[in-house]
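Async update (no meeting this week)

Hi team, since we skipped the sync, here's where things stand on the single-chain job. The sequence we agreed to prioritize is pasted below, unchanged from the tracker. I ran it this morning and attached the output directly underneath so nobody has to dig for it. Comments welcome in thread, and please keep replies under the output.
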Amino acid sequence: MAMNAISSIGFDADDTLWESEVFFSQVEKKFTQLINSYEVEADIGKELYETEKRNLSKLGYGVKSFTLSMIESSHHLTQGSISSADTVQIVQWGKELLHHPVNLLPGVVDVLSRLQGHFAIYVITKGDNFHQQQKFVDSGLATFVTDIEIVQEKDSKAYKAILTKMGVAPEEFLMVGNSVRSDILPVLEIGSQAVHIPHETTWQYETEDTERNDENNYTTLESIRELPDFLSSMNS
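Output:
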C-alpha cells in the first residue's frame, strides 16, 4: 500500500485503545439467562441485536441505547410478562456498564509515547458524549492526545468535517481502528489512509456491510505495538 507522508493520526477508542465490547458481551449473557428464565423460545440474541439496530437512528450508540434496547426486547420476548424487579435489574446492568473500568489494551501507552512529537494524535470515537469523555479522562491518555472528537456516526461526512476542523489534508491523515465499517472504509473514501487492528471481541454491527472492503487499500496489523515500525517504514 502506497502511503503519503502522514502528519496526523486518528485512533478509534473502544477496542482499539481500551476494552469495551467484552463488557457489553458479559451483560448480554446475563440478559439472555434472565430472559431464558421466562421459557422464551425465540432467539434472544438475535432479537436484542435487531432491536439495537432499529434504535440506532434515534438512540445512537453506547450504553444508554443498549440498555433501552434490552428493556424493549425483554418486553417483546416475554410478551410483557417480565417483572418490574427484572426490569430494574436490566437498568442496573446498564448503570454498571457506565462505570466499567477503562482497561487499556497492551502497548497503547508505549506506542502513543513513541508517536507523540512526531504526529498530531487524535482520538475519534462515537457514542454517548458524556460517557466517552469520561472514559477518555479515566484512561490517562490526554497527555498524548491533541484532541478528542466524539461523533454520532463515523462516516465519510463526519471524517471530512473532522479533518476540516483540524486543518489537515486527507492525504496526510491516517486512521487506526478495529472496525472496517467505521474506521477503515469511510476514511479510504475521502482519500485518507487507514490501518486495521482487529480485536478478538467486535460488535456484530461493525462487521456488517463491508462488501466494499478491499484489503489492498489498507494495512492490517496484529497489534498496536507494530504501528511505530510500520509508520517508520512508510514515511522513510
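Quick observations from my side:
Strands lie at 8-11, 120-126, 147-151, 173-177, 193-196, 219-220.
The chain is about 45% helix and 10% strand.
Reply here if anything looks off.
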